[in-house]
Design goal:
Layout: H1 9-19, H2 23-29, H3 33-38, H4 45-55, E1 79-80, E2 83-84, H5 90-112, H6 130-141, H7 154-168, E3 171-175, E4 177-178, E5 181-185, E6 193-196, E7 203-207, H8 212-228, E8 232-234, H9 245-258, H10 261-267, H11 274-284, H12 288-297, H13 303-327, H14 334-342, H15 344-356, H16 361-368, H17 373-383
Parallel strand pairs: 3-7
Antiparallel strand pairs: 1-2, 4-5, 6-7, 6-8
Length: 386
């Protein structure tokens, strides 16, 4: 006989909300949930196990007297219409926890190998002029967007920036999924990136499910949080006039890094048509939304004009992004993608430590998201670790 169990309805609701399911998804995947929450029927142990697995909720927590508190482990700088967002999803929480695990390992590795602290961590403050800090960024990264596009495409520009940031001492992790689970896609609507600040192992994480143009701004924005010296979770709300002062400062730095004011004023011809915005976006390898924000900051647009045009352009960008996702082939070369998800620097360090006996192969596999030694060796070959 199946064993039925008592579960507080609030815990079932908590699991569904935590998974980010809407009513349609809930009804499709667990039509019996209404009976469970109304108390007209109890789930069996097997049904509850299946429900926990589907919602990524710890099975044991479903027997608590009330939903557990799951505070974000980093300061939440996200806004939605200038209002703070609540209840992080399971996907977001697990992604942050995973990056913290990697950071803890890398910090210990840095201490054991005698690595120096990263010099720019915490070297700036919100009192600093964003233009001055932006020039320091450009010096550290060896870029000058004022003289021409960073690269021939948004993808190439993002690779250049993330590689230069890694070379400067900050680990860059880019993924659109939770760990290696291709069935759990991260939502850019929930967050665009975060920074985990540490003097030896700073990490910038970029939501790889976002457009490449948006990722370019995100990686510089999160890098600015590293310079401020405070961890943060961000949604990079370019259309918002309010929000935390740290977010506004990081936006200002990122905008100046990628679109130096003098260069923008020189290139801008007053053309705000889609073609005109696209031309400026290509010139500075940013999104058209960043272009509009920058033009407003430089007083080329009034506040009302900016808000009106931003709303129209945002709808156009979302439609283009949806079309691109629909036509995008799935998958990709694992050995090209995984070092970017993990950070190539982190990947090399874990592989070297395992080969030298400092880290067990079992722990190395877990850190790298691999299960077989052949995968480990192929990954080592790809990142250039001998």
């Amino acid at each position: 006989m199946p064993v039925h169990v008592d579960v507080d309805p609030s815990l079932l609701t908590w699991a569904v909300q935590r998974a980010g399911w809407d009513r349609e998804t809930t009804a499709r995947r667990f039509p019996q949930l209404t009976e469970w929450t109304e108390g007209t029927r109890k789930p069996t142990v097997k049904q509850l196990e299946k429900f926990a697995h589907a919602t990524h909720a710890p099975f044991g927590q479903l027997f608590l007297p009330a939903p557990p508190e799951e505070p974000l482990p980093v300061p939440d700088m996200r806004t939605l219409g200038d209002a703070t967002i609540s209840r992080p999803s399971a996907d977001l929480l697990e992604t942050i926890y995973l990056c913290q695990t990697r950071q803890n390992w890398y910090r210990d590795h840095a201490l054991e190998t005698g690595m120096d602290p990263v010099p720019y961590v915490g070297s700036a403050s919100r009192d600093d002029d964003p233009a001055v800090i932006a020039q320091r960024f450009r010096d550290v990264l060896g870029i000058d967007p004022g003289v021409g596009p960073l690269a021939s495409s948004w993808s190439a520009a993002f690779s250049l920036l993330s590689d230069r940031i890694e070379r400067s001492g900050t680990l860059v992790m880019v993924s659109g999924i939770v760990g290696s689970d291709t069935h759990r896609t991260l939502s850019p609507e929930e967050f665009r990136g975060f920074a985990l600040v540490d003097d030896l192992a700073p990490i910038v994480f970029v939501n790889g499910a976002d457009s490449k143009a948006a990722q370019i701004f995100t990686v510089i924005h999160e890098f600015a949080h590293v310079w401020l010296g405070g961890s943060a979770l961000s949604d990079i709300a370019l259309g918002a006039d309010g929000g935390p002062p740290e977010e506004r400062w990081c936006n200002a730095v990122a905008a100046e890094v990628l679109m130096p004011g003098d260069a923008v004023s020189s290139e801008y011809r007053g053309d705000l048509s889609p073609d005109g915005l696209d031309a400026l976006a290509r010139r500075f390898t940013v999104s058209t939304l960043v272009v509009l924000r920058r033009l407003a900051d430089l007083r080329h647009l009034s506040g009302d004009e900016y808000r009106d045009r931003f709303e129209v352009e945002e709808r156009r960008v979302l439609a283009l992004l949806a079309d691109a996702k629909e036509g995008r082939p799935g998958g990709g070369d694992y050995y090209n993608i995984q070092p970017r998800r993990l950070s190539a620097t982190f990947t090399r360090a874990v592989i070297a430590s395992a080969r030298e006996g400092g880290t067990s192969y079992r722990d190395a596999y877990k850190l790298l998201g691999t299960k077989k030694h052949s995968t480990f060796e192929s990954l080592a070959d790809r990142v250039g670790t001998s």
